[in-house]
Design goal:
Layout (H helix, E strand, L loop, with lengths): L1 H11 L5 E4 L11 E3 L2 H9 L2 H6 L8 E4 L5 E5 L12 E3 L1 H10 L6 E4 L3 E7 L2 E6 L4 E4 L2 E3 L6 H6 L7 E12 L9 E5 L2 E7 L4 E8 L10 H12 L7 H9 L7 E8 L5 E2 L2 E3 L2 H4 L8 H18 L4 H30 L4 H21 L3
Parallel strand pairs: 1-6, 3-12, 10-17
Antiparallel strand pairs: 2-5, 3-4, 7-8, 8-9, 11-14, 11-15, 12-13, 13-14, 16-17
Helix pairs in contact: 1-9, 2-9, 6-7, 9-10
Bound molecules: flavin-adenine dinucleotide.
């Protein structure tokens, strides 16, 4: 999200851009994500707001909320929460990825299955060597490489200096079409399991409260085992089948990561910048990750262009523009956590009572 947005803006403002992506294409997968607040204006300026709205996800009905035995205890309508403005749009990650890619000017060079190996920054720009042995010189290197950013590690320091575990792990997988899936959210203290269909087929999501686990985040088998251990607490509803989907190495749309935030004192060092999750991940529970990715990409491209060769002035202006918004977005994650993953039975009961009250109020408002 951050990388494609940055490619759009830098190219559009007259720079020659190379995009380097480790995967062999755009990374597919993910639950529906939100384009909100300031990102809506950016989408409009990028000329893609109409497309995003055309392909948005509309969830018409509230979702049943189940207890650990699979019994319905409340219902959840996501429209009750978290909208920054009435115009906020929810869209699948894959669709937004495609729309952003289509918005990247044709002269931008894409190099897939490629990564940066080293960066040597100096007065006249940065010398970069790539994993295929190639070397090149750039005025600016933009690390838009997500929570576990390599650019950040190479230039700013180790992940442990900046990434703070937010207390949860998240997993997603597309569910097989060999059976019918019931759309609902099941909760036990510290664990949430959701089945929903955002228009591209049924998908399961797991959110589990957990202290930080030291594992190699690139090892998919380790990730599958961790998910299976989290889900082993529940044997009701569709959970056994969901566990099978998560542990199937052939399953599509698999995604697992810690729910974390990135906190950095500065996002630009010399001729290297980090944007999106690499620089200021707000954590999945904030619902602001994509918005921040788009906002930081546009802000960096415009300030960098505006201040020309004066990197120091560009950096100062960028930080001033972005810092308050990042802080605001990161704070949203604290509101999302107790709603999505109540930690205790008492908190869960109180949350469900709140959902029932909201549902009753909504029914009155709709005249039922
Ligand atoms: C597969 C996937 C599924 C996701 N699902 C969700 C979701 O359901 N809900 C949610 O809120 N957020 C999800 N996210 C995170 C969400 O995309 C980000 O929080 C947000 O959009 C900010 O985007 P970003 O571009 O900063 O980071 P990301 O979207 O994480 O993109 C980073 C990109 O950099 C690439 N990359 C990483 N390391 C290197 C490297 N060393 N060299 C080259 N390329 C590299 C990655 O392959 C990826 O394409 C998901 C991310 C991914 C990758």
């Amino acid at each position: 999200m951050a990388g494609l947005s940055a490619a759009h803006w830098f190219a559009r403002l007259g720079h020659r851009v190379t995009v380097v992506e480790r995967a062999d294409g755009l990374r597919p997968g993910g639950a529906p994500i939100d384009v909100r607040g300031r990102a809506l204006g950016i989408a409009e300026r990028m000329g893609i707001l109409g497309k995003i709205e055309d392909e948005k996800v509309t969830v018409a009905e509230p979702m049943p909320v189940l207890d650990g035995t699979g019994t319905p205890v409340a219902s959840l309508d996501l429209r009750w929460f978290a909208n920054e403005t009435d115009q906020d749009v929810e869209i699948t990650r894959d669709r937004l990825n495609r729309i952003l890619l289509e918005a990247v000017p044709r002269d931008v060079e894409f190099r897939f299955k490629e990564s940066i190996a080293s960066i040597t920054d100096g007065a006249g720009g940065a010398d970069v060597s790539f994993t295929d042995g190639r070397r090149d010189h750039y005025d600016l290197v933009v690390g838009a490489d997500g929570l576990h950013s390599k650019v950040r590690k190479l230039v700013f320091g180790p992940e442990s200096d900046y990434v703070r575990h937010f207390g949860y792990y998240v997993a997603l997988v597309d569910l097989p079409s060999d059976r019918k899936w019931e759309r609902a959210m099941l909760n036990v203290p510290g664990l949430t399991i959701v089945v929903r269909d955002a228009g591209d087929g049924p998908q399961a999501m797991m959110l589990a409260a957990s202290p930080q686990v030291d594992y190699d985040y690139r090892e998919l088998d380790v990730q599958r085992k961790m998910i299976d251990d989290f889900l082993a607490r529940v044997d009701a509803w569709q959970v056994p089948a969901i566990r099978r989907a998560f542990t199937d190495p052939a399953a599509k749309g698999f995604y697992f990561d810690s729910v974390s935030q990135t906190h950095m004192p500065g996002w630009i060092k010399g001729n290297v910048a980090v944007i999106g999750d690499a620089g200021h991940c707000a954590a999945l529970l904030s619902g602001m990750g994509t918005t921040l990715a788009m906002v930081s990409a546009e802000a960096l491209a415009t300030t960098w262009t505006e201040y020309g060769a004066d990197a120091e002035a560009a950096s100062a202006a960028y930080h001033e523009r972005l810092r308050p918004y990042v802080q605001q977005c990161q704070a949203f994650a604290h509101e999302g956590a107790p709603i999505m993953v109540p930690p205790t039975q008492q908190a869960l009961d109180a949350r469900n009572a709140m959902f029932r009250e909201y549902a009753a109020r909504a029914a009155v408002a709709e005249g039922h």
